[in-house]
Automatic annotation (TrEMBL):
GO terms for molecular function: hydrolase activity. InterPro entries: AB_hydrolase, AB_hydrolase_1, AB_hydrolase_fold, Sig_transdc_resp-reg_C-effctor, Tscrpt_reg_LuxR_C, WH-like_DNA-bd_sf. This is Alpha/beta fold hydrolase. SMART domains: HTH_LUXR.
Amino acid sequence: MTRVRDTRVVQQRLGSARTADGTAVSYAVAGTGRPLVYVMGWLSHLELSWELAAERRFYEALTQGRRLVRYDRAGCGLSPAVARPASLEFELEQLAAVAGTLDGPFDLMGTSMGAPVAVAWAAEHPDTVRRLVLYGGWARGDDLSAPAVREHVLGLIESHWGLGSDVLTDIFAPDADRATRAQTARYQRECSTAATARELLALSYALDVTDALPRVRTPTLVVHRAGDRAAPVAQAEALSAGIDGAELVVLPGRSHLPYAGERDELVAAIRRFLGLPVTRRRPDELTPRQREVAELVSRGCTNREIATRLGIDERSAEGHVERIRLRLGFRSRAQVAAWFSARHEVG
C-alpha cells in the first residue's frame, strides 16, 4: 500500500477506534503534520480506495503538509456492520471516536454525504475544528432531487445493486475516463451490501443541517463543481449563505466525486484555504481524461470522433486537446500524437 511520488513514500497506516456503544470504526492515517479529518461520502473502503489510482492520487495530494485521517463508517469497507440504523447522531458518534484518537484541534473536510455531517460536527464542537472544508455537499438532502427520482434510485439499489452502482457511477463521475468509471462501479459494490448502500443513501436524502449552519463559527470553504449531477450547485450556495463568512468556490466540471475529472483546481483551492503551498503537477503529467484524449489523438481521431467515443460534445473535446497541447508545450496535434506514441503502445 505504498507509492513513490517525488522521491517520497506515502504510506497508509490502519487503526481502529470505538464509539461509546462499542461500535468499531476503522480509520487510516497518511502523511504527517496537523490532522485533516476527512469524512467520506456515501460509501468507502479504506484499502480499496487506496488501490484506486485516481482516488489515491487525490488523497496523496492532500497529505503533503497534513496528516490525512479517513475512516469507514459502520457497514462500509473495513468497519463491520451493526444492527443500529444509520442516523446523523450515529454518524457524529463515529466521527467522535476517530477525533478521540487525535490531540488538539484539527482541520475537517466533508465530501458529499460527509459534508452535512461535518457541518453538524463543527456546529456542536466549534473548539475542535480549525478550518472546515465542504465539497459536493448540501444543506437539505430533500432538495437533491424529486421524490420519484429518489425512490427509483433507492429501489434500483435494493433490487439490482450491480445496475444501481453503474447508474450512480454515471451520475457521480461523468468526467472520469472509462477505466475509472468501471473501477468505481465495482468499488461501490465491494464497499458494502446492497442493503447498507440503500440505507446510507436514504440517510443522505434525509439529512438536513439548515438549522446548524448559523451556529458554525469555523472558517469555512465551500467548494463545488458547477455541473455536479448528484448535488446541484444551489446546495453549495445554500451552505455558503448559511455559514457566516464562508468562502464559496465553484469550479468547472460535472463530476460529484472529488477525484474524478480535473482535480488539480480542487486540490489547489483546498490547499490554499488550509494555508498549504499548492503542489504543481509535473509538466508532462496529464489527467486521466487527458491521457484518454491523447491516446485518441495518437490514433488519428478528429475532435468529433473523440467526442463521440467519450460521450462528450465536440467543443469539450477541442478544449481537452488544446489544454493537452498547452500543458506539454506543443504546437500541433501531431506532436501530441508522437509524444503519446513514444510512451505507450498504441494498438
